[in-house]
Sequence to fold (153 residues):
Amino acid sequence: MMKFVKRLNLLSIDVVVGAMVCNALFWKLPDGKSPINYLNTVVLGLSIFVIYTLDRLLDNRKPTQVPTERHLFHQHYERVLWPLVGAILVSILCLLFYLPIITILIGSLIAFVTILYLWIVSKLRDNSSYQYGKEFITTWVYTAGVWGTTIPH
Fold:
């Protein structure tokens, strides 16, 4: 059982579930009676999984990548994770047709920032002082996704 839980952690599933739970709670604001947009919450969770997984997979392409346990796990399962990310991206694209347009617009802005962030980080040297900005950007993107997608209601 612990091995299974460890794998969930290495895949950042705990982060995905945390984001989905927080998103569902934000849908209930301000009076606790607002309906939860479950499709929005699922798309958010899938998107976060893709972002975290892509970040690790792209990190592993750097020759100077520090071999953390999480990065080694992603490296070991790379042949499974790349197609999985592709399939999830296709699923997300199909689900977009069922989301409100304002959610798509907010999500598109967040996606643009995320893609730009992943591209810039993939070009930085590991010893670059700009690597420290990675945590700030990650926090912003995470918060914007969890909270920002509930604004339309």
The helical segments are 2-10, 13-27, 38-59, 69-76, 78-95, 101-123, 133-148. The mean pLDDT is 89.
